[in-house]
Model the fold of this input.
Amino acid sequence: MLEELRITGLGVIEDATLPLGPGLTVITGETGAGKTMVVTSLGLLFGGRADAGRVRADPGRATVDGRVKLPAHLRAAVESRILDAGAEVDDDGTLLMSRTLTAEGRSRAHVGGRTVPVAVLAEVGERVFALHGQSDQLRLLRPAEQRAALDRYAGPEHEKLLGRFAELYTRWRAVEDDLADRRANARQRSQEADLLRLGLDEISRVDPQPGEDELLREEAQRLEHVEGLRSAAQLAHVSLTGTGDGDDVTDVLSLLSTARRTLEAQTSVDRVLGELAARLDEVATLAGDVSTELGSYLASLDADPGRLQEVYERRAALRTLTRKYAEDVDGVVAWADRARTKLGELDTSDELLEELDKERRRLHGEVAEVAATLSAARQEAAGRFAADVTVELAGLAMPHARIHVVVGPKPAGGGPTVPTADGTDAGVGPDGADDIELRLLPHPGAPAQPLQKGASGGELSRVMLAIEVVFAGVGGPPTLVFDEVDAGVGGTAAVEIGKRLARLARDHQVLVVTHLPQVAAFADRHLVVAKDTGGAVTTSGVRVVEHTDRARELARMLAGLPDSDLGIAHAEELLSVADREKSHH
Done:
């Protein structure tokens, strides 16, 4: 639930705070006062497209701040996502969100005081917020939106089936495209494969090993300088052990031993010398180890000219490969691995083509089977959906109207197809093999027409609201915003819309921007956006109206006469009717 919204520097709004709460909140005001900016700010807060042209020149920055109280059933999912972005939810389940937009078009988003990608706002918004306006009514005229509406209504198990179908369809099309490409480009693939085989054959004959070039470089350097290395190692070894040609060599190990024994003899007098003696013992042990390793090193030194020639030849062979395939031997080995993988992708053998064709046919059969199951599920959901929406239309002053949901096969149209139950082919896409069409029968005896042909603006508004009420019964976001969905409606129908919105608000937070007093009368909270004398909305431009002030606002909406006693009396009567209706239900 959205608890508070603050807007600064957006459109005609300089600085305004909207205190929000549960139930039905209506937002009213004169044309141009900034009602649309309220809806725009909500879209921005929840990751919508940013339009720098709406930013006020002074201060050149627009900011929307919102405080959202997450319901228990959504908290874990939302918290998991924002934790990934480095933000967190307050202990009481409150989430602070912010969106800033500059006049130059730069946009920044914050959640829980941390900067996050705007996409994080959008992901949170998908779970907690749904905006419905006149543009949404136009979207409902598109077949894809009608199919999405039916699939959403059908429930989570249906959505799982839809996901399984989309996965199967993607795999089938991938195999289909792969097979077609191998057949169509067999010659080019064969030529490319031959070049890769030549390279692999050359590398295979040399058989380079990872890191071999560096090892050979070090070995060549040792062989080239073997005499100098032997002389240095020999001198060091003699200095440590005293072994050599003369008898007067003083070795390090003997000197260390003498020093250690001398200090140990005085340990009883001063323990400090004992500690130093122990450290000399460690030095002697280390010197002995070095001496042993020097002996092994001397034994391993080989001045074999033949081995040096072998190393030179091996390095030359490796350099031939590195000139052609990579900068070093490790790169050559990696090139060979990639080439072997690529050869499998280029395979156009009859055996592989037959195997791919078999897989293609199997997947096509599964796609057709699941598409039929999906169609049957949509047929079943279509009947329930149409019945539920028709019931709601009756309560929206359209007692004789009927909604029909037609589920039919997609036209083949030259694209991928699947067989239908009657033996014909239907077009198929990632969302199945069905076309969905909502049709409105406005009264008995009239033909059922597609919405785009058979519904007026007012009827379309009510169909949209009826669908939203039906959706609310099967879940959906906790906060619903309606932007003048009552356009083109008046009289009894307006009262019925007010009733339905109040009913929707029993289980949801509902925010409604409206110009109809019949709708505003049903509000639990009434906000008025007002212009000051300069034509701009100030910090006091949005206020909560109650009691007499509320009646005056409804009188203004009814007849443009907020100070008329008759208008106020009419408004108070309207409020009384709305209160009775709400208490009755």
